């Protein structure tokens, strides 16, 4: 057992002064087979601590159904760090931001109409309590006070950027303490008065999050944290990308310079991110700015010290050199980049239309008005809203209030247009009803719920109503399409198709390695490898390839399924040995 504490404005571990050089790796963004590799590289770079958030929504995908296995096996991640001699910092949310769907909150919370997120609201806190009742007993034996590697726990996340409810923060603090979390607790906030006043608690250690100007940030933090050492809990050494904008990078020397000044001021640091990883499946979050939704890309490369695929970068070595000028770095750890293989072209051999598989992929719900996804008990993916409209009535204006996030509109199966929150401009569509009865389909994609700011907690799908001119349309059948399991699909031969389709192909390998799928001939959708959802691709910049970690492949035959919404310029993909960003 060990005590990690603050004394004389320093951290002490079992009575000895210690500095924290930490890096963030989110276990839920890297396949478990690679956890050891990434953690070893952290250690070999001179770090002594790993920090991770806990993403509630992967642990409780449906209310009351808990998952702590596979990529959700947090105790295995912590123990792997321990075996390498690393200390661990846990940031257990309940909200984590992190460019992760709904900031890590499970979307099923939203079906409770009296819920208010991130404040002292009984419904919300009851759900937090039942999650903490499962999570914290798993982590308690791993606390340093019980002989494990965990030295500290965060309360909430950058709460001052969101609210000012101290009763809520205190409730979370008590919830940790009452469940036996007796290690150091802390908060982290932006280095401004309003944020530090809103997000902190009087007796709880305070840290700050920032990417540059560490002197100024520590000066501000000092006004609020008078007893402890200075710590940057999120040193943004890179940044994330949105679909439709440029790929972010930051110069290694710039990062090394800011690190040097933090270390020179006796500071402590947690790199956000040491290794970013991937937003697999539908787990990316989104921002919202100036009337536009900005969904985060599948890659969470972050221009971090390790790439999305775990490779050591120039920034890795620049940071290692800076750390080495202050501390001894163990030189007995052998680390190398994992092998990458360009397996070449994979041709899609078969296809299956989404609209012909609705009853296999979905349990439809009927209702007069359209219902949002959350009221259909749907977490992620797509919802098809179907109704019959009468005619003929010529040209009418279709308005969807609101279409969250991207609706593709069909009349009698014929594509009419797209209403997309990631684009500015007219959110109405002209359609022509020229028959006595026509089927109106609106296929709405949840592009990733907002993870930051006041739109946190809004509904997805169609949230209010659908109008033809001024008239509300009633009588809907809704098909929730989560795409968790696509096994039941019946494929047939490839033919020209413009409605959403699954395309299937395969490739054979005699050596397993990492690879990247180049999606340059495809428009928008998701890709499955051997049944695992790798995440979204989109013809919008900047991400052109999807990362395929080697452990998802097997010797011999491997299956690729592409779910494409719009059509394609060729029927193959290329497996290459490097990522491509624009
Ligand atoms: C904040 C949040 C993090 C992350 C970063 C940006 O600091 O606390 O979760 O969203 O911004 O990457």
From TrEMBL:
Residues 11-324 form the Glycoside hydrolase 35 catalytic domain. One of its GO terms (biological process) is carbohydrate metabolic process. This is Beta-galactosidase. The keyword Hydrolase applies. Keywords: Glycosidase, Hydrolase. InterPro entries: B-gal_1-like, BetaGal1-like_ABD1, BetaGal_gal-bd, Galactose-bd-like_sf, GH, Gly_Hdrlase_35_cat, Glyco_hydro_35_CS, Glycoside_Hdrlase_35. Residues 370-482 form the Beta-galactosidase 1-like first all-beta domain. Residues 500-558 form the Beta-galactosidase galactose-binding domain. The keyword Hydrolase applies. The lineage of its organism: Bacteria, Bacillati, Bacillota, Clostridia, Lachnospirales. It holds the Pfam family BetaGal_gal-bd. The active site is at residues 158, 234. Belongs to the glycosyl hydrolase 35 family. GO terms for molecular function: beta-galactosidase activity.
């Amino acid at each position: 057992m060990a005590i990690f504490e603050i004394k004389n404005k320093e951290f002490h571990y079992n009575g000895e002064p210690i500095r924290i050089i930490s890096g963030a790796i989110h276990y839920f963004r890297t396949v478990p087979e690679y956890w050891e590799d990434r953690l070893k590289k952290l250690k070999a770079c001179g770090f002594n601590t790993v920090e991770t958030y806990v993403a509630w929504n992967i642990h409780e995908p449906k209310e009351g159904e808990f998952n702590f296995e596979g990529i959700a096996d947090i105790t295995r991640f912590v123990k792997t760090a321990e075996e390498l001699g690393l200390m661990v910092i846990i940031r257990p949310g309940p909200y984590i931001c992190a460019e992760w769907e709904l900031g890590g909150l499970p979307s099923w919370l939203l079906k409770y109409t009296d819920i208010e997120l991130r404040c002292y609201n009984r419904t919300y806190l009851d759900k937090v309590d039942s999650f903490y009742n499962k999570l914290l007993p798993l982590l308690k034996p791993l606390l340093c006070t019980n002989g494990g590697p965990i030295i500290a726990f965060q309360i909430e996340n950058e709460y001052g950027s969101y609210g000012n409810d101290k009763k809520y923060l205190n409730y979370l603090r008590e919830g940790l303490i009452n469940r036996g979390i007796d290690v150091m607790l802390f908060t982290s906030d932006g280095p401004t008065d309003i944020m530090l006043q809103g997000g902190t608690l009087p007796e709880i250690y305070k840290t700050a999050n920032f990417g540059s100007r560490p002197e100024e940030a520590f000066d501000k933090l000092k006004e609020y944290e008078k007893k402890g050492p200075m710590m940057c809990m999120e040193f943004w050494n890179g940044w994330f990308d949105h679909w439709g904008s440029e790929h972010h990078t930051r110069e290694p020397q710039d990062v090394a310079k800011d690190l040097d000044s933090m270390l020179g001021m006796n500071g402590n640091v947690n790199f956000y991110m040491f290794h970013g990883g991937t937003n697999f499946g539908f787990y990316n979050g989104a921002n919202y700015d100036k009337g536009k939704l900005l969904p985060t890309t599948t890659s969470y490369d972050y221009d971090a010290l390790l790439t999305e695929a775990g490779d050591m970068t120039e920034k890795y070595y620049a940071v290692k050199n800076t750390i080495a000028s202050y501390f001894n770095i163990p030189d007995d750890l052998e680390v190398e980049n994992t092998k990458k293989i360009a397996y070449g072209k994979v041709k899609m051999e078969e296809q299956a239309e989404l609209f012909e598989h609705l009853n296999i992929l979905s349990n439809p719900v009927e209702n007069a008005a359209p219902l949002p996804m959350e009221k259909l008990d749907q977490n992620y993916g797509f919802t098809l809203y179907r109704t019959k409209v009468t005619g003929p009535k010529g040209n009418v204006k279709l308005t969807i209030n609101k279409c969250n996030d991207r609706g593709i509109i069909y009349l009698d199966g014929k594509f009419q247009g797209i209403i997309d929150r990631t684009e500015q401009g007219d959110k109405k569509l002209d359609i022509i009803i020229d028959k006595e009865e026509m089927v109106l389909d609106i296929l709405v994609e949840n592009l990733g719920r907002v993870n930051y700011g006041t739109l946190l907690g809004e509904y997805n799908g169609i949230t209010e109503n659908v109008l033809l001119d001024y008239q509300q349309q009633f009588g809907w059948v809704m098909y929730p399409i989560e795409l968790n399991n696509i096994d039941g699909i019946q494929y047939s031969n490839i033919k020209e198709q413009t409605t959403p389709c699954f395309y299937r192909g395969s490739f054979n390998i005699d050596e397993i390695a990492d690879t990247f799928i180049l999606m340059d001939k495809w428009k928008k959708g998701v890709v499955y490898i051997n049944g695992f959802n790798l995440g979204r691709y989109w013809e919008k910049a900047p991400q052109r390839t999807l990362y395929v970690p080697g452990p998802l492949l097997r010797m011999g035959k491997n299956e690729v399924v592409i779910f494409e919404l719009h059509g394609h310029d060729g029927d193959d993909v290329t497996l290459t040995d490097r990522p491509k960003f624009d």
